[in-house]
Amino acid sequence: MKGKIIKSTGNWYTAKTVEGHYVECRLKGKMRLEEIKLTNPVVVGDWVEIENEMDSGDTVIGHIYPRDNYIIRQSPRQKFHDHIIASNIDQAILLVTISKPRTSFGFMDRFLTAAACYHIPVTIVVNKADLLSEKDNKKLQELYLIYKDLGYPIHLISVLESKGLDEIKQLLHEKCTLIAGHSGVGKSSLINVLHPNFNIKTGKISSRWDKGMHTTTFAMLHELNDHTQIIDTPGIKEFALTDVEPEELGGYFPEIYQRMSQCQFNNCLHENEPRCAVTRAVEEEEIHADRYSSYLQMLENIKEIKSYQKRLNP
Ligand SMILES: Nc1nc2c(ncn2[C@@H]2O[C@H](COP(=O)(O)OP(=O)(O)OP(=O)(O)O)[C@@H](O)[C@H]2O)c(=O)[nH]1
Ligand SMILES: [Mg+2]
Ligand SMILES: [Zn+2]
Questions:
Q1: Average pLDDT, integer, range 257-271
Q2: Would you list the DSSP string of 23-64?
Q3: Pocket of ligand 1, beta carbon within 6 A
Q4: Domains of the chain (ranges plus CATH)?
Q5: Is 242 in contact with 110 (CB distance < 8 Å)?
Q6: From the CA of 249, which ligand is nearest?
Q7: pLDDT tens sequence across 75-117
Q8: Where is pLDDT greater, at 41 or 15?
Q9: How far is the CA of 242 from the centre of ligand 3 (A)?
């Protein structure tokens, strides 16, 4: 029977079958051996085939259907160990806060790029509007200036004061949406206010560091109604760009994509090449310097990953 994984805690998974039943299952013994090398062979959002195992009487996952897309994060401990957060999503909300905790533009760029690789549309949602100081407001204006121009929809909300939530409800309607962002930005709090019956655990912000406490520890799919699903995720430090080639990266930056056909070399990486339309646009301040430096950082990172992979499989 076909089902969708809604929760994963180590070796056990919860799947919702197409008939609407919730079943606890684990990976079939044989599959476990074959896929043992992967950190997380089954993830929230995966479509799987569930069967009854004769010997054990357990309900097991016998097959994982190919994923349409997924979002990967970089392991906080091991640089090259990536971890798929969730799969088969229609869209993502990048939930950010200007302060408590602060979300950097560099972090946003990484997520936007990771999502663009899989053609996952992203809406930027700025939470904690109630906390904005004058200085924060300036930062927020800068955020609008950069990202609105690039074509990303942006919403300003306050979960605490229930402001701006109707637009979010409309946005989620009949889609499967992943909510991503740093620990403490209010991902779980937002999901809680969207449904009266939800009671997801939320955590305080450390007053010492202005950072979240990593309250949500694994991704979980919550159903607002039969056709509307929302995936809560743990606070993330870094998103990984494992599957991207260096010369592809520019294609995922709308402002680079727009200009790269005008570069002299068609394999231009927009670093120091002559007659590069991208570096020219940066000099002329048509491309934001912060965005360009995010690009260069990601490019370095991708090159590093590639050379690591080459060393592993020469
Ligand atoms: N002032 C203010 N605080 C908020 C708002 N939304 C959420 N919070 C608070 O922010 C803190 C963190 O909220 P969570 O929902 O646990 O954050 P999270 O993003 O799920 O964090 P992790 O699970 O650690 O990734 C809680 O104390 C919330 O009450 C808001 O709009 N304004
Ligand atoms: Mg949470
Ligand atoms: Zn170029």
A1: 96
A2: EEEEE-HHHHHHTTTSS-SS-BT-EEEEEE-TTT--EEEEEE
A3: 127-128, 130-131, 158-160, 181, 183-189, 202-205, 212-216, 234-235
A4: 2-64 (2.40.50.140), 70-232 (3.40.50.300), 246-312 (1.10.40.50)
A5: no
A6: 3
A7: 666 666 677 889 999 999 999 999 999 999 999 999 999 999 8
A8: 15
A9: 22
